[in-house]
Write a structure and sequence with these properties.
The chain is α+β, with helices and mostly antiparallel strands. It has a domain of 195 residues. Helix content is 58%, strand content 11%. It is built from 26 helices and 12 strands. Helix 24 runs antiparallel to helix 25. The longest helix is centred in the last third of the chain and has 68 residues. The radius of gyration is 44 Å and the shape is elongated. The two termini are 77 Å apart.
Length: 883
């Protein structure tokens, strides 16, 4: 009976193993993650290629987040025609369980928009760091890279599992009916097996099998038997040795290491691409082809900033064109232009400016939508671009540009002599004065910033002069104003001591006249204008602004024009008071209206307002140009002080893709030995043994029922055609890999040399472009002065003035845009150089840690480069083996 219960227990264990059909989906998913994340954690310990976050579950705030249970996903929306095939196909009824998990119309996280931080306009404020954060959170490309890294670690886990002890078990129950020779019975067979692959290439297996048979006639057990077997196979030639046996695991581990490094390269290139629009080479995702360049869907965040600033520059140019057109119309009406051709030139230029601005705004919006898509977000997401980088390229304050627009609009109304002066013009002038005071305060802050940047600017010019020394020695010629620190210091000294005080003094003078206009009633001011009885402060302001004409009697030309007024109008309206009374009456007569219109053409009061406002407008433009020069001279570059040779030396020690290339070269070299092993014959050492039970007792093992076998198995290599071809192919593949490696290194060297040259050129070009903006600013200033001080004494404006004025404004626009583009290019090159040298570092949020001055990097002993071993010149190595 004891033996019966022992056998029954053994049967229960076997039946339990055989009847167990496996755990749930969630159990295996969690277990798989645990295994893979363990591999990722072990392979992610080197700080030089550490991936801070390698989880593949998107954040709940991400658009990619799955709101449903991953093991019970509902069915997404299906095509109706295709869906019918799931329920009825080829005349057969399909499964009715497809909808057991429910249905959903969502493919993206339906709540992701609620997590976005928006401003009062419902827009997502986007700066450089926020763009990177959103891309990492929402980009399918970045998520795919993480999943590829996960799959690389999974391959390692699979290979490691092959060298663990693996258990298998099963059970079967078979019922048989009575026959002529046997009784009806039930037979249960259970087995358990353990296997393991050895690092030397061998395999061992240990198993236990049990069988119990019941006879159904008498209800008692009839027989029970168990068998323990073990086997060992150890190759001695083909497939023998750790080199061959561990090849698959070794390759998986090396591939995983390369994937971790490639992930770091991808993160660096991804940041660079999101910010600059250019990721450089060798920055594909872990599963991508090494050396592939994934193009950006947009020009990067810098490109959006550049587009926004160019729109602002174009807008300022258009504002200037509008004012110039009004001036030329006024000059034409005053008879100071020979013909209307110059007016139409200015009108054409204004129309072209307006059309260009519309095109730029349209392209900018399209670029924003494309850029938003590259972040993994829908194009209808409203965003606003805002970044501190934008401020330094606003060479003119946007509020000052708006103020200039408003002054131009007010002046345009004053110049329309057939229209009355706006009733609220005093309130308008008060607001303009208040806003101008604020712009002066901003300008003073710009002067302070310029003063603080002086030491850095001087040091930068000295470095630039050293950089240019070699070029100038070879015959190149650069204007000394570009690199001479003395020229820069003299320019700034003159700006601060002469030009700025003069501009602010003239602007204050216009304030005096504008306050006089605001604080004095119209009849009183008219009398002051007529009698020239201004206060000493007002007279001084008029003299400083060269507006003495408004304080003197009318010129002879004006007197002649007054004498041409029809006599009947003079008789009808004896005095100016009568005209004003007629204008203020509820129903002025038609004759009175016509007389008022004629009188407005020679209204000294209106003309005085126009002259003062025009003088203020000119000084406002001068302030704008002065601010442009000040901000322009305050801008600095973070220097790059490294040679191409130093950059390549650093890259050869630190670049992760070069490490991967070396690894791939050795992988090809290893395959020669692996393929050569297959040329050998098969010689295996084998061992087999088993022990069984006796007397129909399932647990009674006896040596008499056991046997053991030891032997050798030999397979002669008579035919090795495929193996021979594989071996020769591996040799050719290695030679190809050698060439690819040094070609790859040549490409790295060429890329670095080109980048360093471009950086040096951009440093020089930046100063040249700065000086071009300064020159064009002076041109515009001179042309504006010429327009403000037209020729007197009956002389007319030169017919080329309109074209020169257009060229001056357009030249300033081009030089400002070129200056901006040069700075953007330099910043992109700095980032790419840091990346291509292998020294780029990201923080735990995937943002670039700006290294500041990029110079030669001292190699620590830990990172000392490996020295290639030269070929040994021996007769054996130099011989050619020919059969």
């Amino acid at each position: 009976m004891d033996r019966f219960f022992c056998v029954l227990c053994l049967f229960a264990i076997a039946a339990g193993l055989g009847g167990h059909t496996g755990c749930g989906r969630q159990h295996y998913r969690v277990k798989a993650d645990r295994e893979v994340y363990s591999v990722l954690q072990q392979g992610n310990c080197n700080p030089r290629w550490k991936v801070d976050d390698y989880g593949i579950i998107p954040n709940a705030t991400s658009r990619m987040a799955d709101p449903f249970h991953p093991d019970r996903e509902p069915m997404p929306c299906d095509d109706p025609s295709a869906h019918r095939k799931m329920h009825y196909v080829a005349g057969m009824k399909g499964s009715h369980h497809w909808h057991d998990n429910g249905d959903t119309r969502y493919t993206e996280n339906p709540c992701w928009r609620h997590y976005l931080l928006v401003n009062e306009k419902g827009e997502v404020p986007l700066d450089k760091e926020k763009a990177v954060e959103l891309a990492i959170q929402h980009s399918p490309e970045y998520q795919s890279a993480l999943e590829n890294l996960y799959l690389s670690a999974m391959a390692v886990s699979r290979e490691r599992f092959n060298y663990d002890v693996r258990f298998y078990g099963g059970d079967s129950v078979l019922a048989s009916t009575a026959t002529a020779t046997s009784n009806p019975s039930i037979r249960n067979s259970a087995h358990v097996r353990a296997e393991r692959r050895l690092a030397t290439g061998g395999d061992w297996v240990v198993g236990l099998a049990n069988s119990i048979t019941w006879s159904l006639n008498n209800g008692s057990w009839q027989s029970s038997g168990s068998l323990i077997n073990a086997s060992l196979t150890q190759p001695l030639l083909r497939g023998a040795g750790r080199k061959v046996a561990l090849e698959s695991l070794t390759q998986a581990e090396r591939n995983f290491l390369a994937a971790v490094r490639q992930m770091v390269l991808f993160q660096q290139g991804y940041y660079t691409r999101i910010v600059t629009g250019s990721s450089g080479r060798h920055t594909s995702a872990p599963s991508g082809t090494s050396g592939a360049n994934t193009p950006s869907l947009a020009s990067g965040f810098y490109g959006l900033l550049e587009g926004q600033i160019q729109i602002q520059n174009q807008r300022r140019t258009m504002v200037g064109s509008e004012d110039n057109l009004d001036r030329f119309v006024e000059l034409f009406d005053a008879g100071q232009l020979e013909n209307k051709y110059q007016v139409e030139q200015m009108r054409q230029n204004l129309l072209m400016s307006q059309s260009t601005l519309l095109g730029q705004v349209n392209s900018y919006q399209a670029n924003i939508e494309t850029y938003v898509r590259s972040l993994g977000l829908p194009p209808d997401l409203e965003i606003s671009i805002s970044d501190p980088l934008l401020e330094q390229f606003q060479l003119t304050s946007p509020t000052l540009t708006t103020l200039t627009e408003d002054v131009n609009a007010f002046l345009a109304l004053i110049r329309k002599k057939d229209q009355p002066i706006p009733e609220n013009f005093r309130d308008t002038i008060k607001d303009v004065i208040r806003r101008t005071e604020g712009e002066i305060a901003v300008f003073n802050q710009d002067l302070e910033a310029l003063q603080k940047s002086m030491p850095e600017r001087i040091q930068g010019l000295q470095n630039l002069k050293s950089l240019l020394a070699e070029r100038m020695a070879s015959g190149e010629r650069i204007d000394p104003s570009v690199y001479e620190a003395e020229v820069f210091e003299k320019r700034i000294t003159k700006l601060r001591s002469e030009e700025v005080p003069q501009t602010l003094s003239r602007l204050r003078a216009t304030f005096t006249l504008l306050h006089l206009l605001v604080d004095t009633e119209e009849p009183v001011l008219r009398e002051l204008i007529r009698s020239k009885s201004f206060s000493p402060a007002a007279l001084k302001a008029l003299k400083d602004l060269k507006l003495e004409k408004t304080a003197e009697s009318s010129s002879e030309e004006d007197q002649v024009r007054l004498q041409k007024v029809p006599e009947e109008s003079t008789n009808e309206l004896k005095t100016l008071k009568e005209v004003l009374d007629a204008a203020s009456s509820e129903q002025p007569t038609t004759e009175a209206q016509q007389s008022i219109a004629r009188l407005r053409q020679k209204d000294e009061y209106r003309d005085w307002i126009r002259r003062v406002t025009s003088a203020f407008q000119y000084e406002l433009v001068s302030l704008s140009l002065m601010q442009t020069r000040t901000r322009l001279d305050a801008m600095t570059l973070v220097p790059v002080a490294i040679t191409a040779e130093e950059a390549f030396q650093t890259a050869s020690e630190r670049r992760l893709d070069l490490m991967n290339q070396k690894s791939q070269l050795v992988d090809r070299w290893r395959q020669i030995d692996i393929r050569a092993n297959r040329l050998k014959g098969v010689l295996n050492l084998t061992f087999n043994g088993n022990a069984g039970t006796v007397d129909r007792n399932g647990v009674h093992f006896d040596g008499s029922n056991s046997n053991f076998n030891v032997g050798l198995a030999w397979d002669s290599p008579l035919t090795r055609y495929e193996e021979m071809m594989d071996y020769r192919s591996s040799q050719i593949a290695y030679q190809n890999a050698r060439r690819n490696y040094y070609t790859y290194v040549d490409g790295v060297l060429s890329e670095l040399r080109s980048t360093v040259r471009d950086v040096q050129r951009s440093q020089i070009d930046f100063e040249i472009r700065r000086n071009q903006v300064l020159v064009d600013t002076v041109r515009v200033d001179l042309m504006q002065l010429q327009m403000e001080r037209p020729p007197q004494g009956g002389r007319r404006i030169d017919t080329n003035t309109a074209r020169e004025l257009i060229d001056a404004f357009n030249g300033l626009l081009r030089s400002q845009n070129d200056f901006l583009s040069t700075w953007m290019r330099y910043q992109t090159l700095r980032m790419l150089l840091d990346q291509n040298m292998g020294t780029m570092e990201l923080d735990d949020q995937g943002r670039w840690i700006d290294p500041g001055v990029i110079g030669s990097v001292t190699t620590s002993p830990e990172h000392a480069p490996s020295i290639p071993i030269p070929f040994i010149e021996t007769s054996r190595l130099n011989r050619r083996y020919v059969d």
